[in-house]
Amino acid sequence: MKPTVFGKKVIKTIVFIIIAVLFLIPFWWMIVTSLKPPQEILLYPPTLFPKEINLRNYVDIFKRVQLITFFKNSIIVALGVTTVAVFTSTIGGYIFAKFSFRGKNAFFMFILSTIMVPLTVIIIPLYMMAIAVGLKNSLLALIIPGWVNALGIFLVRNFLASIPDSYIEAARIDGCSEFMIYLRIILPLLKPAIAAIFIFIFMANWDSFFWPLIVIDDVSKRTLPLGLGLFTQAFGVQNWNLIMSATLVSIFPVLLVFLFFQRYFIKGISLSGLKQ
Amino acid sequence: MLTILRDRKRRFVYTGLAPILLLFSLIYVYPIFTAFFVSLHDWELLSKTHDFIAFGNYLNVLRDGVFRRSFLNTLYFTFVYLFFTLILGLGLALFLNSLKKPFQTILEVIIFLPVVTITVAGALVWKWMYNPSFGILNYLLGFLGIEPFKFLASPKIVIPSIIVMALWKWIGINVIILLAGLQSIPEEYYEAAEIDGGNRRSLFVRITLPLLKPTLEYIFVTTILAAMQVFAEIFMLTYGGPGISSRVVAFHIYEIGFRFLKIGEASSVAFILFTFILIVTAFQFRIFKREELY
User: Of A21, A227, B155, B237, which has the maximum CB count within 10 A?
Assistant: First the structure.
Protein backbone atom coordinates (compact mmCIF):
# COMPACT_ATOMS: atom_id res chain seq x y z
CA MET A 1 0.00 0.00 0.00
CA LYS A 2 1.45 3.35 -0.98
CA PRO A 3 1.01 6.26 1.39
CA THR A 4 -0.91 9.11 -0.13
CA VAL A 5 0.61 12.56 -0.55
CA PHE A 6 -1.64 13.78 2.24
CA GLY A 7 -0.67 10.93 4.54
CA LYS A 8 3.00 11.65 3.93
CA LYS A 9 2.49 15.26 4.87
CA VAL A 10 0.77 14.28 8.12
CA ILE A 11 3.61 11.92 9.05
CA LYS A 12 6.19 14.58 8.26
CA THR A 13 4.38 17.14 10.38
CA ILE A 14 4.20 14.75 13.32
CA VAL A 15 7.91 13.88 13.06
CA PHE A 16 8.74 17.59 12.80
CA ILE A 17 6.82 18.36 15.98
CA ILE A 18 8.31 15.44 17.92
CA ILE A 19 11.88 16.46 17.03
CA ALA A 20 11.23 20.12 17.83
CA VAL A 21 9.64 19.27 21.20
CA LEU A 22 12.46 16.90 22.19
CA PHE A 23 15.08 19.56 21.52
CA LEU A 24 13.07 22.34 23.18
CA ILE A 25 11.95 20.59 26.39
CA PRO A 26 15.12 21.53 28.32
CA PHE A 27 14.75 25.20 27.36
CA TRP A 28 11.10 25.26 28.31
CA TRP A 29 11.84 23.52 31.62
CA MET A 30 14.60 26.06 32.28
CA ILE A 31 12.13 28.92 31.80
CA VAL A 32 9.31 27.32 33.80
CA THR A 33 11.58 26.46 36.74
CA SER A 34 13.15 29.90 36.78
CA LEU A 35 9.71 31.45 37.30
CA LYS A 36 8.68 29.25 40.21
CA PRO A 37 8.83 30.24 43.89
CA PRO A 38 10.88 27.85 46.11
CA GLN A 39 7.87 25.98 47.52
CA GLU A 40 6.65 25.10 44.03
CA ILE A 41 10.01 23.48 43.17
CA LEU A 42 9.40 20.67 45.65
CA LEU A 43 5.89 19.83 44.47
CA TYR A 44 5.14 16.44 43.03
CA PRO A 45 3.83 16.06 40.40
CA PRO A 46 5.80 19.01 39.03
CA THR A 47 3.73 21.86 37.64
CA LEU A 48 4.25 21.99 33.90
CA PHE A 49 3.38 25.67 33.68
CA PRO A 50 4.14 28.24 36.36
CA LYS A 51 1.08 29.15 38.46
CA GLU A 52 2.10 32.77 38.27
CA ILE A 53 4.82 34.71 36.51
CA ASN A 54 7.29 35.40 39.29
CA LEU A 55 10.37 37.40 38.32
CA ARG A 56 11.81 37.54 41.84
CA ASN A 57 14.43 34.89 41.09
CA TYR A 58 15.90 37.11 38.40
CA VAL A 59 16.36 39.92 40.89
CA ASP A 60 17.72 37.63 43.61
CA ILE A 61 20.23 35.88 41.39
CA PHE A 62 22.09 39.07 40.56
CA LYS A 63 22.40 39.77 44.30
CA ARG A 64 23.75 36.33 45.13
CA VAL A 65 26.03 35.62 42.16
CA GLN A 66 28.47 37.90 40.33
CA LEU A 67 26.97 37.09 36.95
CA ILE A 68 27.91 40.48 35.51
CA THR A 69 31.57 39.94 36.44
CA PHE A 70 31.57 36.44 34.94
CA PHE A 71 30.01 37.79 31.79
CA LYS A 72 32.58 40.57 31.52
CA ASN A 73 35.46 38.10 32.02
CA SER A 74 34.02 35.78 29.37
CA ILE A 75 33.78 38.64 26.89
CA ILE A 76 37.37 39.74 27.59
CA VAL A 77 38.68 36.19 27.15
CA ALA A 78 36.65 35.31 24.07
CA LEU A 79 37.48 38.57 22.29
CA GLY A 80 41.12 38.50 23.44
CA VAL A 81 41.52 35.08 21.86
CA THR A 82 39.43 35.64 18.77
CA THR A 83 40.85 38.95 17.53
CA VAL A 84 44.44 37.69 17.68
CA ALA A 85 43.51 34.27 16.29
CA VAL A 86 41.76 35.87 13.31
CA PHE A 87 44.88 37.93 12.65
CA THR A 88 47.29 34.95 12.86
CA SER A 89 44.92 32.72 10.84
CA THR A 90 44.53 35.20 7.99
CA ILE A 91 48.20 36.14 7.77
CA GLY A 92 49.32 32.50 8.11
CA GLY A 93 46.73 31.23 5.64
CA TYR A 94 47.70 33.95 3.18
CA ILE A 95 51.39 33.09 3.41
CA PHE A 96 50.75 29.37 2.85
CA ALA A 97 48.38 30.07 -0.03
CA LYS A 98 50.30 32.67 -2.01
CA PHE A 99 54.03 32.47 -1.29
CA SER A 100 56.61 29.84 -2.06
CA PHE A 101 59.51 29.37 0.29
CA ARG A 102 61.74 26.63 1.58
CA GLY A 103 60.09 24.25 4.07
CA LYS A 104 56.58 25.41 3.20
CA ASN A 105 54.99 21.97 3.11
CA ALA A 106 56.79 20.80 6.22
CA PHE A 107 55.71 23.90 8.16
CA PHE A 108 52.14 23.48 6.97
CA MET A 109 51.98 19.82 7.94
CA PHE A 110 53.50 20.72 11.29
CA ILE A 111 50.74 23.25 11.94
CA LEU A 112 47.99 20.89 10.76
CA SER A 113 49.24 18.09 12.98
CA THR A 114 48.53 20.19 16.08
CA ILE A 115 44.81 19.55 15.44
CA MET A 116 45.45 16.02 16.70
CA VAL A 117 46.89 17.21 20.02
CA PRO A 118 44.16 16.90 22.67
CA LEU A 119 43.91 19.64 25.29
CA THR A 120 43.65 16.96 27.96
CA VAL A 121 47.17 15.77 27.10
CA ILE A 122 48.90 19.15 27.28
CA ILE A 123 46.89 20.66 30.13
CA ILE A 124 49.40 19.77 32.87
CA PRO A 125 52.43 21.29 31.05
CA LEU A 126 50.36 24.36 30.16
CA TYR A 127 49.53 24.73 33.84
CA MET A 128 53.21 24.42 34.79
CA MET A 129 54.08 27.04 32.17
CA ALA A 130 51.39 29.38 33.48
CA ILE A 131 52.89 29.10 36.97
CA ALA A 132 56.44 29.58 35.65
CA VAL A 133 55.64 32.84 33.85
CA GLY A 134 53.39 34.14 36.62
CA LEU A 135 50.16 33.94 34.65
CA LYS A 136 48.32 31.52 36.94
CA ASN A 137 45.00 32.95 38.10
CA SER A 138 44.95 35.56 35.32
CA LEU A 139 42.71 36.01 32.33
CA LEU A 140 45.79 36.17 30.09
CA ALA A 141 46.42 32.50 30.87
CA LEU A 142 43.02 31.78 29.32
CA ILE A 143 43.73 33.99 26.31
CA ILE A 144 47.24 33.22 25.07
CA PRO A 145 46.84 29.47 24.33
CA GLY A 146 44.15 30.35 21.79
CA TRP A 147 46.19 32.84 19.79
CA VAL A 148 47.01 30.40 17.01
CA ASN A 149 44.53 28.04 15.42
CA ALA A 150 45.47 25.39 12.88
CA LEU A 151 41.94 25.11 11.52
CA GLY A 152 41.77 28.87 10.98
CA ILE A 153 44.99 28.85 8.93
CA PHE A 154 43.77 25.82 6.98
CA LEU A 155 40.43 27.47 6.11
CA VAL A 156 42.02 30.73 4.98
CA ARG A 157 44.56 28.89 2.84
CA ASN A 158 41.81 26.91 1.10
CA PHE A 159 39.70 30.01 0.67
CA LEU A 160 42.52 31.93 -1.00
CA ALA A 161 43.49 29.08 -3.31
CA SER A 162 40.70 30.10 -5.69
CA ILE A 163 41.83 33.75 -5.88
CA PRO A 164 44.06 34.43 -8.93
CA ASP A 165 47.64 35.50 -8.20
CA SER A 166 47.51 38.20 -10.88
CA TYR A 167 45.28 40.18 -8.58
CA ILE A 168 48.00 40.41 -5.95
CA GLU A 169 50.78 40.77 -8.54
CA ALA A 170 49.16 43.91 -9.95
CA ALA A 171 49.16 45.59 -6.54
CA ARG A 172 52.77 44.55 -6.05
CA ILE A 173 53.83 46.21 -9.32
CA ASP A 174 51.96 49.34 -8.22
CA GLY A 175 54.41 49.51 -5.33
CA CYS A 176 52.20 48.34 -2.49
CA SER A 177 54.14 46.95 0.47
CA GLU A 178 53.48 43.32 1.33
CA PHE A 179 51.68 44.19 4.55
CA MET A 180 49.52 46.74 2.72
CA ILE A 181 48.52 44.07 0.19
CA TYR A 182 47.46 41.84 3.08
CA LEU A 183 45.56 44.66 4.74
CA ARG A 184 43.95 46.32 1.72
CA ILE A 185 43.38 43.43 -0.68
CA ILE A 186 43.50 40.10 1.13
CA LEU A 187 41.55 40.96 4.28
CA PRO A 188 38.51 42.41 2.44
CA LEU A 189 38.42 39.32 0.22
CA LEU A 190 38.43 37.10 3.29
CA LYS A 191 35.32 38.57 4.95
CA PRO A 192 33.19 35.38 4.75
CA ALA A 193 36.05 33.22 6.01
CA ILE A 194 36.75 35.68 8.82
CA ALA A 195 33.11 35.59 9.92
CA ALA A 196 33.23 31.81 10.12
CA ILE A 197 36.57 31.71 11.96
CA PHE A 198 35.49 34.43 14.34
CA ILE A 199 32.34 32.56 15.31
CA PHE A 200 33.85 29.12 15.81
CA ILE A 201 36.79 30.37 17.84
CA PHE A 202 34.58 32.68 19.87
CA MET A 203 32.09 29.92 20.65
CA ALA A 204 34.77 27.36 21.57
CA ASN A 205 36.27 29.80 24.06
CA TRP A 206 32.90 30.95 25.33
CA ASP A 207 32.17 27.34 26.29
CA SER A 208 35.61 26.44 27.63
CA PHE A 209 35.54 24.86 31.11
CA PHE A 210 38.45 22.51 31.92
CA TRP A 211 41.32 24.98 31.45
CA PRO A 212 39.66 27.88 33.35
CA LEU A 213 38.71 25.42 36.11
CA ILE A 214 42.33 24.65 36.92
CA VAL A 215 43.98 27.98 36.15
CA ILE A 216 41.59 30.45 37.82
CA ASP A 217 41.38 30.68 41.62
CA ASP A 218 39.61 33.98 42.34
CA VAL A 219 35.83 34.16 42.09
CA SER A 220 36.20 37.62 40.52
CA LYS A 221 38.21 36.14 37.61
CA ARG A 222 35.82 33.34 36.72
CA THR A 223 34.34 33.13 33.27
CA LEU A 224 30.65 32.38 32.74
CA PRO A 225 30.88 28.56 32.48
CA LEU A 226 33.20 28.41 35.47
CA GLY A 227 31.16 30.83 37.58
CA LEU A 228 27.90 29.12 36.70
CA GLY A 229 29.34 25.66 37.24
CA LEU A 230 30.94 26.33 40.62
CA PHE A 231 28.41 28.53 42.42
CA THR A 232 25.66 25.97 41.89
CA GLN A 233 27.63 23.38 43.86
CA ALA A 234 26.84 25.30 47.04
CA PHE A 235 23.09 25.35 46.29
CA GLY A 236 20.57 22.74 47.41
CA VAL A 237 17.54 21.21 45.67
CA GLN A 238 15.21 23.94 46.88
CA ASN A 239 17.31 26.45 44.94
CA TRP A 240 16.80 24.95 41.49
CA ASN A 241 14.64 27.95 40.58
CA LEU A 242 17.61 30.27 41.24
CA ILE A 243 20.03 27.98 39.40
CA MET A 244 17.74 27.88 36.38
CA SER A 245 17.32 31.66 36.31
CA ALA A 246 21.12 32.06 36.45
CA THR A 247 21.45 29.49 33.67
CA LEU A 248 18.94 31.30 31.51
CA VAL A 249 20.58 34.68 32.10
CA SER A 250 23.96 33.16 31.15
CA ILE A 251 22.89 31.68 27.86
CA PHE A 252 20.50 34.44 26.84
CA PRO A 253 22.91 36.97 25.20
CA VAL A 254 24.54 34.46 22.86
CA LEU A 255 21.21 32.80 22.11
CA LEU A 256 19.85 36.19 21.04
CA VAL A 257 22.85 36.93 18.82
CA PHE A 258 22.48 33.44 17.36
CA LEU A 259 18.84 33.98 16.42
CA PHE A 260 19.78 37.14 14.52
CA PHE A 261 22.82 35.75 12.74
CA GLN A 262 21.91 32.06 12.63
CA ARG A 263 23.18 31.53 9.08
CA TYR A 264 26.68 32.70 9.98
CA PHE A 265 26.67 30.75 13.23
CA ILE A 266 25.65 27.49 11.62
CA LYS A 267 28.28 27.88 8.95
CA GLY A 268 31.02 28.99 11.34
CA ILE A 269 30.52 26.34 13.96
CA SER A 270 29.92 23.49 11.57
CA LEU A 271 33.23 24.33 9.88
CA SER A 272 35.06 23.65 13.09
CA GLY A 273 33.22 20.58 14.31
CA LEU A 274 35.63 20.50 17.18
CA LYS A 275 34.73 21.25 20.71
CA GLN A 276 37.42 22.67 22.89
CA MET B 1 63.58 45.61 -9.14
CA LEU B 2 62.79 41.92 -9.09
CA THR B 3 65.30 41.17 -6.36
CA ILE B 4 63.87 43.97 -4.24
CA LEU B 5 60.42 42.43 -4.64
CA ARG B 6 61.78 39.01 -3.78
CA ASP B 7 63.50 40.30 -0.66
CA ARG B 8 60.34 42.07 0.42
CA LYS B 9 58.30 38.92 -0.07
CA ARG B 10 60.83 36.88 1.83
CA ARG B 11 60.86 39.37 4.68
CA PHE B 12 57.07 39.29 4.84
CA VAL B 13 56.98 35.49 4.90
CA TYR B 14 59.53 35.18 7.67
CA THR B 15 58.28 37.99 9.89
CA GLY B 16 54.72 36.74 9.46
CA LEU B 17 55.42 33.09 9.96
CA ALA B 18 58.01 33.20 12.74
CA PRO B 19 55.70 34.28 15.58
CA ILE B 20 53.00 31.86 14.41
CA LEU B 21 55.37 28.89 14.35
CA LEU B 22 56.81 29.95 17.69
CA LEU B 23 53.36 30.03 19.28
CA PHE B 24 52.43 26.62 17.85
CA SER B 25 55.67 25.20 19.23
CA LEU B 26 55.14 26.73 22.67
CA ILE B 27 51.46 25.81 22.97
CA TYR B 28 51.46 22.34 21.41
CA VAL B 29 54.92 20.84 20.86
CA TYR B 30 56.81 21.88 23.96
CA PRO B 31 53.96 20.69 26.25
CA ILE B 32 53.91 17.25 24.62
CA PHE B 33 57.61 16.74 25.35
CA THR B 34 57.14 18.15 28.84
CA ALA B 35 54.21 15.83 29.48
CA PHE B 36 56.31 12.85 28.45
CA PHE B 37 59.25 14.02 30.55
CA VAL B 38 57.08 14.55 33.62
CA SER B 39 55.39 11.19 33.12
CA LEU B 40 58.76 9.48 33.63
CA HIS B 41 59.17 10.97 37.10
CA ASP B 42 57.68 10.65 40.54
CA TRP B 43 56.60 14.30 40.35
CA GLU B 44 54.46 16.22 42.81
CA LEU B 45 53.25 19.58 41.58
CA LEU B 46 54.61 21.74 44.40
CA SER B 47 57.71 19.80 45.44
CA LYS B 48 61.16 20.84 44.26
CA THR B 49 62.67 17.39 43.75
CA HIS B 50 61.41 14.57 41.58
CA ASP B 51 62.90 11.14 41.05
CA PHE B 52 63.29 9.55 37.66
CA ILE B 53 61.36 6.30 37.71
CA ALA B 54 61.27 5.51 33.96
CA PHE B 55 57.98 3.81 33.16
CA GLY B 56 57.05 3.32 36.81
CA ASN B 57 54.03 5.60 36.56
CA TYR B 58 52.77 3.74 33.51
CA LEU B 59 53.04 0.39 35.28
CA ASN B 60 51.26 1.73 38.34
CA VAL B 61 48.53 3.31 36.26
CA LEU B 62 47.90 0.17 34.22
CA ARG B 63 47.58 -1.82 37.44
CA ASP B 64 45.25 0.75 39.00
CA GLY B 65 41.62 -0.39 39.02
CA VAL B 66 40.30 3.18 39.11
CA PHE B 67 42.22 4.10 35.97
CA ARG B 68 41.11 0.94 34.19
CA ARG B 69 37.50 1.66 35.03
CA SER B 70 37.89 5.29 33.86
CA PHE B 71 39.41 4.09 30.61
CA LEU B 72 36.67 1.52 29.99
CA ASN B 73 34.02 4.13 30.82
CA THR B 74 35.61 6.50 28.30
CA LEU B 75 35.59 3.80 25.61
CA TYR B 76 31.98 2.92 26.40
CA PHE B 77 30.95 6.58 26.31
CA THR B 78 32.88 7.27 23.10
CA PHE B 79 31.63 4.38 21.02
CA VAL B 80 27.99 4.52 22.07
CA TYR B 81 28.04 8.30 21.61
CA LEU B 82 29.72 7.94 18.20
CA PHE B 83 27.21 5.31 17.10
CA PHE B 84 24.20 7.44 17.97
CA THR B 85 25.82 10.59 16.61
CA LEU B 86 26.13 8.89 13.23
CA ILE B 87 22.71 7.19 13.21
CA LEU B 88 20.67 10.06 14.63
CA GLY B 89 22.77 12.66 12.83
CA LEU B 90 22.17 10.98 9.49
CA GLY B 91 18.47 10.44 10.25
CA LEU B 92 17.93 14.06 11.24
CA ALA B 93 19.93 15.34 8.26
CA LEU B 94 17.88 13.20 5.84
CA PHE B 95 14.68 14.43 7.42
CA LEU B 96 15.80 18.07 7.25
CA ASN B 97 16.82 17.56 3.64
CA SER B 98 13.29 16.42 2.80
CA LEU B 99 11.70 19.57 4.26
CA LYS B 100 10.82 22.71 2.33
CA LYS B 101 12.54 26.01 2.99
CA PRO B 102 10.99 27.82 5.95
CA PHE B 103 10.42 24.57 7.88
CA GLN B 104 13.91 23.34 7.15
CA THR B 105 15.43 26.52 8.55
CA ILE B 106 13.17 26.50 11.61
CA LEU B 107 14.09 22.93 12.55
CA GLU B 108 17.75 23.58 11.77
CA VAL B 109 17.74 26.50 14.20
CA ILE B 110 15.94 24.45 16.90
CA ILE B 111 18.40 21.56 16.62
CA PHE B 112 21.26 24.05 16.75
CA LEU B 113 20.04 25.91 19.87
CA PRO B 114 21.79 23.52 22.30
CA VAL B 115 25.06 23.94 20.38
CA VAL B 116 25.15 27.66 21.21
CA THR B 117 24.17 26.95 24.83
CA ILE B 118 27.08 26.79 27.29
CA THR B 119 27.78 23.11 28.07
CA VAL B 120 27.69 23.79 31.81
CA ALA B 121 24.27 25.42 31.46
CA GLY B 122 22.97 22.51 29.39
CA ALA B 123 24.29 20.03 31.95
CA LEU B 124 22.58 21.94 34.77
CA VAL B 125 19.15 21.73 33.15
CA TRP B 126 19.56 18.05 32.45
CA LYS B 127 20.68 17.43 36.00
CA TRP B 128 17.48 19.06 37.17
CA MET B 129 15.36 17.16 34.65
CA TYR B 130 17.04 13.90 35.73
CA ASN B 131 16.27 14.57 39.41
CA PRO B 132 14.66 11.29 40.55
CA SER B 133 12.15 12.90 42.92
CA PHE B 134 11.18 16.24 41.42
CA GLY B 135 12.51 15.96 37.86
CA ILE B 136 10.28 16.35 34.85
CA LEU B 137 11.57 13.32 32.94
CA ASN B 138 10.29 10.63 35.27
CA TYR B 139 6.97 12.45 35.40
CA LEU B 140 6.68 12.61 31.60
CA LEU B 141 7.84 9.00 31.17
CA GLY B 142 5.10 8.06 33.65
CA PHE B 143 2.52 9.06 31.02
CA LEU B 144 4.01 6.45 28.70
CA GLY B 145 3.74 3.88 31.49
CA ILE B 146 7.49 3.76 32.10
CA GLU B 147 8.76 3.12 35.64
CA PRO B 148 10.82 5.96 37.17
CA PHE B 149 14.59 5.87 36.60
CA LYS B 150 17.36 6.94 38.96
CA PHE B 151 19.12 8.37 35.91
CA LEU B 152 22.34 9.76 37.39
CA ALA B 153 22.31 7.75 40.61
CA SER B 154 22.25 4.31 39.03
CA PRO B 155 25.64 2.81 38.09
CA LYS B 156 24.04 1.01 35.13
CA ILE B 157 22.31 3.88 33.37
CA VAL B 158 24.40 6.84 34.43
CA ILE B 159 26.58 6.79 31.30
CA PRO B 160 23.63 6.37 28.91
CA SER B 161 21.99 9.32 30.69
CA ILE B 162 25.08 11.45 30.12
CA ILE B 163 25.18 10.32 26.49
CA VAL B 164 21.60 11.50 25.98
CA MET B 165 22.52 14.94 27.33
CA ALA B 166 25.68 15.11 25.20
CA LEU B 167 23.75 14.09 22.07
CA TRP B 168 21.18 16.82 22.71
CA LYS B 169 24.00 19.32 23.20
CA TRP B 170 26.26 18.45 20.27
CA ILE B 171 24.36 16.61 17.54
CA GLY B 172 23.37 19.91 15.88
CA ILE B 173 26.91 20.39 14.59
CA ASN B 174 26.97 16.98 12.92
CA VAL B 175 23.45 17.31 11.51
CA ILE B 176 24.43 20.58 9.84
CA ILE B 177 27.64 19.10 8.43
CA LEU B 178 25.77 16.05 7.10
CA LEU B 179 23.01 18.23 5.65
CA ALA B 180 25.62 20.27 3.76
CA GLY B 181 27.08 16.97 2.53
CA LEU B 182 23.66 15.74 1.36
CA GLN B 183 22.93 19.01 -0.42
CA SER B 184 26.20 18.85 -2.32
CA ILE B 185 25.18 15.60 -4.04
CA PRO B 186 23.97 16.54 -7.55
CA GLU B 187 20.32 15.71 -8.23
CA GLU B 188 21.28 14.16 -11.60
CA TYR B 189 22.96 11.22 -9.87
CA TYR B 190 19.65 10.17 -8.39
CA GLU B 191 17.76 10.77 -11.63
CA ALA B 192 20.24 8.66 -13.58
CA ALA B 193 20.06 5.86 -11.04
CA GLU B 194 16.26 5.94 -11.01
CA ILE B 195 16.20 5.46 -14.76
CA ASP B 196 18.43 2.43 -14.20
CA GLY B 197 15.67 1.16 -11.93
CA GLY B 198 17.02 1.60 -8.43
CA ASN B 199 14.64 1.70 -5.49
CA ARG B 200 14.91 4.13 -2.58
CA ARG B 201 17.04 1.94 -0.37
CA SER B 202 19.50 1.00 -3.07
CA LEU B 203 19.84 4.68 -4.00
CA PHE B 204 20.79 5.42 -0.40
CA VAL B 205 23.34 2.63 -0.25
CA ARG B 206 24.76 3.10 -3.75
CA ILE B 207 24.78 6.90 -4.05
CA THR B 208 24.18 8.76 -0.80
CA LEU B 209 26.45 6.80 1.53
CA PRO B 210 29.50 6.60 -0.77
CA LEU B 211 29.30 10.30 -1.59
CA LEU B 212 28.91 11.17 2.09
CA LYS B 213 32.04 9.22 2.98
CA PRO B 214 34.39 12.20 3.40
CA THR B 215 31.78 13.88 5.61
CA LEU B 216 31.28 10.74 7.70
CA GLU B 217 35.03 10.32 8.01
CA TYR B 218 35.37 13.87 9.29
CA ILE B 219 32.62 13.30 11.86
CA PHE B 220 34.27 10.03 12.94
CA VAL B 221 37.56 11.75 13.71
CA THR B 222 36.20 14.89 15.35
CA THR B 223 33.63 13.00 17.43
CA ILE B 224 36.17 10.49 18.74
CA LEU B 225 38.66 13.24 19.50
CA ALA B 226 36.03 15.18 21.47
CA ALA B 227 34.34 12.23 23.18
CA MET B 228 37.60 10.71 24.42
CA GLN B 229 38.14 13.98 26.29
CA VAL B 230 34.62 14.51 27.65
CA PHE B 231 34.90 16.49 30.87
CA ALA B 232 32.49 19.38 31.55
CA GLU B 233 29.41 17.15 31.16
CA ILE B 234 30.80 14.61 33.63
CA PHE B 235 32.02 17.22 36.10
CA MET B 236 28.63 18.94 36.17
CA LEU B 237 26.24 15.98 35.97
CA THR B 238 27.86 13.36 38.20
CA TYR B 239 31.38 14.33 39.26
CA GLY B 240 32.34 10.84 38.08
CA GLY B 241 29.78 9.12 40.29
CA PRO B 242 27.98 7.28 41.66
CA GLY B 243 31.26 5.87 43.02
CA ILE B 244 33.41 5.73 39.90
CA SER B 245 30.62 4.56 37.57
CA SER B 246 30.89 7.56 35.25
CA ARG B 247 34.50 8.50 35.87
CA VAL B 248 36.31 9.15 32.57
CA VAL B 249 39.98 9.61 31.71
CA ALA B 250 39.86 13.42 31.59
CA PHE B 251 38.22 13.45 35.01
CA HIS B 252 40.83 11.00 36.32
CA ILE B 253 43.60 13.33 35.09
CA TYR B 254 41.85 16.27 36.74
CA GLU B 255 41.55 14.52 40.07
CA ILE B 256 44.99 12.92 40.44
CA GLY B 257 46.80 15.82 38.75
CA PHE B 258 45.05 18.84 40.14
CA ARG B 259 43.42 17.63 43.35
CA PHE B 260 46.04 15.14 44.55
CA LEU B 261 48.82 17.06 42.71
CA LYS B 262 50.47 13.84 41.45
CA ILE B 263 51.30 15.27 38.04
CA GLY B 264 53.80 12.54 37.16
CA GLU B 265 51.11 9.90 37.33
CA ALA B 266 48.53 12.19 35.72
CA SER B 267 50.89 12.84 32.80
CA SER B 268 51.33 9.13 32.20
CA VAL B 269 47.53 8.81 32.05
CA ALA B 270 47.45 11.71 29.58
CA PHE B 271 50.09 10.01 27.45
CA ILE B 272 48.21 6.71 27.41
CA LEU B 273 45.14 8.62 26.23
CA PHE B 274 47.16 10.39 23.54
CA THR B 275 48.66 7.15 22.24
CA PHE B 276 45.25 5.53 22.16
CA ILE B 277 43.70 8.45 20.25
CA LEU B 278 46.52 8.36 17.69
CA ILE B 279 46.14 4.61 17.18
CA VAL B 280 42.35 4.82 16.76
CA THR B 281 42.53 7.66 14.26
CA ALA B 282 45.34 6.02 12.26
CA PHE B 283 43.36 2.78 12.17
CA GLN B 284 40.28 4.68 11.11
CA PHE B 285 42.04 6.31 8.19
CA ARG B 286 43.19 2.86 7.05
CA ILE B 287 39.67 1.46 7.12
CA PHE B 288 38.35 4.35 5.07
CA LYS B 289 41.26 4.11 2.64
CA ARG B 290 40.75 0.40 2.07
CA GLU B 291 37.09 0.86 1.27
CA GLU B 292 38.02 3.34 -1.42
CA LEU B 293 39.49 0.49 -3.48
CA TYR B 294 36.07 -0.95 -4.20
Answer: A227
